[in-house]
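Why this split exists: single-chain examples teach little about how molecules sit against one another. For that reason, every record in the complexes split bundles all components of an assembly together and asks for one structure covering all of them. Below is a record exactly as it appears in the raw files.
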Amino acid sequence: MSTLTIDNLPASEAEIDFSDLEAKFVIPEQEETLENVVVVDNLPIVEPSKEETLIKVLKKTFSKYGKVKENGIHMPKENLGNTTKSKGYAFIELESAKQAQAAIRNLNGFGLSKAHILLVSPFMDVEKYTEVEDNCQLPPAEPFAEREHLKSWLTDDFGRDQFTVFAGNKLNVYWNEATQSAEEIVSRSNWTEAYVQWSPLGSYMCTFHPKGLVLWGGPSWNKLMRFIHLGVRLADFSPSERYLVTMSQEPISLERVNQQLGPNELHQNPFTNDDEGNTICIWDVRTGTLLRSFAPPKNQDGSVAKVGWPQFKWSPSENYFARMTPGSSLAIYEAPSMVLLDKKSMKVPGIQDFAWCPRTITDPRTGAVKPEMLAYWTPEEGNLPARVSLITVPNKALVRTKNLFNVYTAALHWHPEGHMLCVRVQRYTKSKKSKFTNLEIFRTSEKDVPVDVIELKDCAVVFDWEPTSENFRFAILHMSDPTRPPMNASGMATVAVKTNISFYGLERKGKLVKKESFRLLKTIENKNTTALKWSPRGRHIVLATLRTIPSFELDFYDLDFDQSAAAKTGNPGDAITQVATNEHFGVTDLDWDPSGRFVITSASMWRHSMENGYILWDFKGQQLRSVPTEEFKQIFWRPRPRSLLTEEQKREVRKDLKSYTKEFEEQDERKLHAADAELMAHRRRLITEWENWRQQVEEFLAKETDEALAGGYKLPIAADTEDCVVDEIVEEIIDEKEEIIG
Amino acid sequence: MIPILLQGHTRPLTQVKYNAGGDLLMTVSKDKEASLWYTYNGERIGTFVGHLGALWTIDCNKSSTLVVTGAADNTARLWHAETGRMLHTWELPTAVKRVEFSHDDRYVLMVTEERMGHKSGIYVFAIDSSSPEQSNEPVVILRPSPVKATVAAWSYLDKYIVAGHEDGGLTLYDWKYETVVHHTQAHEGTITDMQMWKDGTYFITSSKDKTARLFETKTLNPLKMYKGDTGINSAAMTPTQELVILGGGQAASEVTTTSSRQGKFESRFYHKVFEDEVGSVRGHFGPINTIAVSPDGKGFASGSEDGYVRLHHFDPDYFKFKYDY
């Protein structure tokens, strides 16, 4: 190589001699791989005469995803007596490995005809599987490890409930106590890195971490399961806790997951290439396996559709789950196979919201399980009215529809027991100037699904069913102007809004011919209430003003308090009585315990920083305990599974309530006594210690004083501390007259 | 309990103090005047006028004849209690944050601020009660370390001086020999007040760390702790009932919005031995800066950032109060 000087610089790139560099950085020619070859199985077996047609069809099918090489389709044949037939599979060579992957992804499972569902796999797999040894070696059976009792907390002798408190970086679990402070069960720092959540039946506690989600539980509070999902934000369980849905803002990237796991734990990566880019995962809770991942729902124009959480809603049996793409379709999937029901989603133009009937209903006469049901609504469009539809799943049969007019928006509220569906329809008046609400109540378990309509004069903004199905009562929060009050940055309303609360119930009339209709029981006017919270056992309700800076009232109501008044007037609404009214400054959240005995109100630092902490009340609204806590964030009762008792058994218990009451009262008394005795003993000990110490000090001081006085120290004569009465006689000379007595 | 509202000051109160007999109340405020009141009816006897800066502290001797005040004008002054005549002025390098007569009335201690290159100091001056002339030469100057002292008090028999520091530390000095007997980290925040039990064998401190604590003087051993939920500016012990009274509230700069209950401007009562909160007295609409209990235990006074002194005489119920044990 000639040396370069300023005079003989090359004029163009072509003149530069790169040979040395080329030799140095030689790229070894890529070995020819067979990665671009795929194996297609389950083809029809054809005679040579039809072979060409089949190859043509295959070529057409595969060229959608890549270019099939010239003579790239090879279909082995075999001689069967006097005819030659294809063996039912073929090798197809595509131009590149990428195209082959695309073909596998899209055509595996493709139905060429009903009998011929194609199985497409990479050719390299064939090689891989031929290397598998013929003699199967069973992996050593893992020793059976007994799992902890996940429902152990339900066996508590006193039937206490648990709750979690998340404050600062500490997460604590407590036993609730009525008469003394809560008993701590476990307390760990940095247990969760975002927040904490219970599963719906209380078996698991979830903590959120940048790498994923962890479930805890059992008597030891050990880690039960780990789900790797980077940046997980939201989690939702299926109703019986069999499946878990997690959502993250970051699309799944195999590489990122591997990076996070480190080289030794790659086998823990649950994802495959197919999951790349998806954001939602569905897991099997017990085994921890990923069942399927989903991309966020897309609108027709390809943009990501906005769907609330939970994105996937589960049917009560957990056999189906569904997700909608607002405005266009509803996709119902089967579990655990995770495939679309009937292989396609339902086209529902305009769909705005849907909800599953929350319980599987059995026919009271035959005992047969009725098919599961879901309801959805579509808004007005052109000449078509808005419509609420009820369909059964899996056969997608329409059970009932109802047309609605002048609809602004609607909300679906299923009764928790699944017998009724209330559609809260916000409507325009004819002039379109103001809004009002219609409540359309579908009795879904009755024949032909009759609908009751309650027309309100103003707008119902909150609707809540009483959880029990005895009287089908519900409460609504209504006001004339439904605009939301102004909020500050952390979601606290800066002004209180005047609201009214009304209670309705199903009234049964007539003995021979049943006549049932919904009736207004009572209206409470001019409150600042923002939330209606029923006791999980019904009957009691708290009207709360949550997340409002100037107002923080809690009104406890009993709907069956004054039975005699109700009996006198014949209006069950007259029994409704306010049993207590309280305030909790800065209250942001309210939560009933699952047994309906206690209420916890809390003020979270996520909303404001004043007087954070929680207060425990009993169901009558009596304050039991106030626990101010610094950096208080969340408090949650541990949910309980549904009672296993039948209605008859519950009635029996209610009949025998007196004997049970006695037993429990004795128990409480003993506990209280023990606690009292303990406290008294503690105090007596403290006071004795204090008195002993004082005596010691006084003896010491007397000695010191003597010494000091001997050394010339002189205390001043203390001022007289005894009270003394100073009598002051004030004489005032009013007039002076001199008289000469002569 | 209906308090007497003493509206004599125009700026935040800095200290209130009863005389030994409990019939007089002395108050000082940032408005440069000290006032003297009858505790019986809240009538003002008069003011001590002369300081040129905010007053921080006041004390009088056992016979209630002499009054000493300390102020931000870098002086401490001696007054004739009855006439309000100024008898003497001590010039100090920096502001005087705390003054206290010794139990035998022969000395007065003064805690000075750390400022303008001057270190904080605890000055002890001898008091000659027989003449108005006083010595300008301190008997002793203690130099608190590692950080400045905020408060100080005399121990039993005036043997020691206890100082509370800005970092929450406590130091027990044998002042005559200028030696440190004990030092302990008592609080996690600035010590805001220190009040001795009448015989000087234990004392209560209050701190910005939201607690008040009780310590034995001789050893500085912690005895009790009372937890509040905001910074505590002052703590006092009641001489007859076994109670302590804590006063504080959110710092004025942190009080942002409307309702006065948000600031926790209450005097809160705790049981001295059991450490349980037993009650509270509301009324101020600014943080409570100072609390004093009458030596006869029949009342207490609180002075607040809001410029008012509330003088309370306990109801008969208070004296019947008995804690179960």
